[in-house]
Amino acid sequence: MSRRRPSRQELNRTHTRTGFIGRHAERQSFYSNLCSEPEDASYLFHVHGVAGVGKSSLIRHWEGTARAAGALTAVVNEDAIGPIEAMESISAQLARQGQALSRFEIAAERYRKQRHEAEASLALPTVDRGDEPASTSSRTAAQIGLGALSLAPVIGPAAAALDVDALARGADRMRAAVSSRLRDHHDAELVLQPLRVLTPAFVQGLAEAAGKHSWVVLFFDTWERTEPLLDAWLRSFVLDDGHGELPVNVIVVVSGQAAPAAREWDAYRDLIVDVRLEVFTEAEARALLTARGVTDEALVTAVLRMSGRLPVLLDTLARARPSSPDAVDDPADTAVQRFLHWVVDPHQRAAILACALPLQLNEDIYRTAAPQEVADQYAWLRGLPFVSGRGGSCRYHEVVRVSILRLQRTGSPLTWSERHNHLADAHARWRAGLEERLAPAERWSDSTWREHRLNETYHLLCADPTLLAPALEEAVEACSEDLPTVRRWADVLTRAGTDADASALTAWGLRLQDATNREPGIMNALTELLTSAPLGETARARAHQLRGRRFFQAAHPEHALAEFTAALVVDPALVTAIADRGTACAWLGRFEEAIADFDRAVDLSPGDAWLITRRGVVQRLAGRYEQAVTSFDRAIDIDPGDAWVLAHRGVAQRLAGRYEQAVTDLDQAIRLNPHYAWAIANRGEVHRLAGRYDDAVTDLDHSIELGPEAWALTFRGEVQQLAGRHFRTVTDPDGSEQLDPDYSWAFANRGVVHRLAGRHEQAVTDLDRAIELNPHYAWAIANRGAAHRLAGRHGPARRDIEQALTIDPGVAEYLLQKAMLVTTVDGIRAATDIWRSIGVRDATDEYGALAVFLAALSVGTPLEANNMFQRFIARDVHCDTLLDALRCLHELRASPGADRSGIDRYRNALTNRLAVMRR
Pfam families under this entry (predicted)? Predict the structure, then answer.
């Protein structure tokens, strides 16, 4: 849209309204920039200078100037504990100006909702090694992913084994569990990588706003506090283009005590307008005093000396209307003392003192802190020159606040403690009110609850710094949340130590701040706590548990198991640690120990449906399908509307051979959540095993359309055991694991259905897609070879089968495919050696039994062949295996020298068996 320059009258009104004095060059520079064409204008400003020099005041003035020029503006300060909170703050401010970032707001609201659901479901980690499939051709990858585990630190000798890449690979397993629980891959991506989803929506909203207004100006104040939290994110959309194009009429202003330090800014220094603020010149200082009515030369001289020409102190003293100068020694403290002396109303003076104690104020906190006589004068307090804020909250300028705190702490230590305890009690009451609706596992995830807990702890520490140990134990729990929360906790310790003049608090706060500012932040923080903090038994057990989760997430299940065991030595009844140890045991294949742990956990928490479901999953992994169904029954009795549990009971029913019950459960799960791609894919698997290939293709089509990532993400936690060897991890050239971008299992399974139905070209198309997504997917490669063979393309068939055997040597299904290919092309005699190598194998599964039977039929005796056939048919053989057996017999019958009458008897028996199964 066309730009609009502010009129002189508008600028005059802005100047008069803010009462801004000085900084003429800085004001003129910013105004001139707004008058430039966007393509020629500067878009990055870095304002920096010491505390009290007037950075925030200049920012407010620049904001007024921008508003007068028709710009949309938003200011982000230290209240934003991370990028999401910063985007939400900006969005809310722009909405109040009539420009809502609608798409971002919808996405952010959905993020909060889905994150809450995910956190509730992931209080315990989940693991799956993959089901023992009934036939190799029907092998599927694991049914749910590895657990979403808190990012906890690792210490001790094994710490060297962990690196950021390992932790990133562990995050894949977190993605798996969240994806299987949230079902929709868009929701999973939103929860697991919110900035990748929310930032583009935010940038798009800024672009839409910029298209309707002359400028959009974003101010980031108190950068010295928010830089560790926001710097990388800010650069990601201001300097880089990974989140969309930022319009040229978007201006970003960063303000802090020092210029941004990240090296990544260096390449853009020529684009940045560096604004360094010094204390006022004497001329500027005198101009401010004159504007405030302070003209007596002796008084002016005294104020200049007392304030050191620091703008915040100058303005504070000038607005107090001093009547006479006095000699002083400490400029800052004396300036504050003088200001308080000139406040005539004793109740207002008491309110100024009391309201300096909170880290920030709103009206509720003001009423709690201030004397009752001025309880309704919150607006008056907000109008003081050293108080600033937005919306309903405000805070003192740090220079003034520090001086007031020092005066109170040294003047009356008893009153100091009483007032802090009074404020701590208030936050404790407000926190307790929230706990009436928040389950214990939900509290740390609730931002309002966290703020009350943080402020309560701050005031308790200020009142009594010897309470450091409980605060450090709470810091352990903060490590179970996220990095911004741990950083806030470190900041609270530092602030309390500084304000209470308690060096032990300050030291611990700085240690945790340093830890969180280095990668991986939470691991470093928990390392400090575990090695040096005076933790009690409960906190130490919890720390061991979090450390175990960190090991587990970094793919060190043995170390994780040791840590979970250590946690239980300290606290044998820690249910979540018991379940975590069960998870680690299951991961290591120690299913009996895993089930024992989950039995114990369920005994301690018999009403926990999610825990009971977890036990059912492990029982299923152990092959105890009936016990698994019983566990799922019990969980469903507690929560009948949980589609996730119904789907898992359906899978257990399938593995127990009860296809109709499996379909019933999966149908119900899908009715509850029509977009549940994983359940739809598993129902397709049941249809395939039951020989209903059209239904199977329909479900697999639907699951692929719904979410190419939603179900495939659940397979990232596999190990090399049975199903695991059929779905290998894709690895980038740099060695880091990557999530398959599409639904490779579903494509492979649909390809197999097409092959079984005789649609060889469609089968090859789907299997091509699966192999493109996962080049090491041996099962898909072997099945593509089978499709080529059945279509008469022997060269491609040979290449595929050899490749599958290279990836997974000795798999009976692949050896059988090779034997059939050689038999088809060169005859049974040429394939004798292959058939004999198959014949000496143990028939460990139904496809192995089929291979041994066909080997005996090809190169053995009729009696041996009949015995092997009886062993094969005695199994609970699936339809797809029977179809493959019939096709193999058909091909063998066409070979020279074949016993056609014997083969026909076997074909008739299998045909009758298949007809019975399809009734």
Answer: TPR_1, TPR_16, TPR_8
Contact, 781 vs 800, CB < 8 A? yes
8 A C-beta contact, residue 90 and residue 80: no
| Dist. CA 352–CA 821, nearest whole Å | 90
For the stretch 151-192, pLDDT in tens is 223 333 333 333 334 434 444 444 444 554 554 555 656 666
Nearest CA among 123, 127, 31 for reference residue 555? 127
Judge whether residue 417 has pLDDT over 90.
Answer: yes
Place of tokens 């690979």: 169
**Residues sharing a CB contact under 8 Å with residue 168, sequence separation 6 or more, in sequence order:** 736, 737
The two structure tokens encoding residue 34: 């707004």
Distances (CA, A) of 193 to 185, 515, 523: 12, 23, 19
In the chain, the amino acid numbered 80 is A
Find out whether 693 and 168 touch, Cβ atoms under 8 Å. no
Alpha-carbon span 652 to 663, nearest angstrom: 11
Mean pLDDT computed over every residue of the chain: 82
How many C-beta atoms surround the C-beta of residue 675 within 10 A?
17
At a CB cut-off of 8 Å and minimum separation 6, what does 438 contact?
Answer: 446, 449
Cα distance between residue 99 and residue 1, in whole Å: 15
Could you tell me which residues are beta bridge partners of residue 276? 48
| SS3 assignment, position 600 | helix
Written as six digits, the tokens of 268 are: 């853009």
**8-99+212-276, CATH topology level:** Rossmann fold (3.40.50)
d(CA 835, CA 831): 6
Per the document, the length of the chain is 919
pLDDT at residue 347 in the model: 96
For residues 649-653, give the mean pLDDT.
95
- Rounded distance, CA 377 to CA 146, Å? 55
Contact criterion met (CB below 8 Å) for 383 and 333: no
Q: Which of 682, 721, 722, 717 is nearest to 700 (CA)?
A: 682
- Among residues 656, 634, 632, 628, the alpha carbon closest in space to that of 646 is found at 632
Q: What is the distance in angstroms between the CA of the first residue and the CA of the last residue of the chain?
A: 70
Delimiting residues of CATH 1.25.40.10 domain(s) in the chain = 717-917
Backbone φ/ψ region at 555: left (φ over 0), alpha (ψ -120 to 50), beta = left
Buried b (16+ CB within 10 A) or exposed e, 477-502: bbbbbbbbbbbbbbbbbbbbbbbbeb
The span from the CA of 866 to the CA of 637, in Å, is: 48
Q: What is the pLDDT of residues 199-241, one digit of tens each?
A: 999 999 999 999 999 999 999 998 988 888 899 899 999 988 7
* DSSP bridge partners of 220: 76, 254
Other beta carbons within 10 Å of 213? 21
pLDDT tens-digit series, residues 236-290: 999 887 788 999 999 999 999 887 766 778 888 889 999 999 989 899 999 988 9
- What CATH architecture is 717-917? Alpha Horseshoe (1.25)
- Residue 326: the pLDDT is 54
Per-residue pLDDT tens digits for 495-540: 999 999 999 999 999 999 999 888 878 888 888 998 999 999 999 9
Q: Which two tokens stand for residue 24?
A: 């003429």
User: In the Cβ-directed half-sphere of 67, how many Cα atoms lie within 13 Å?
Assistant: 20
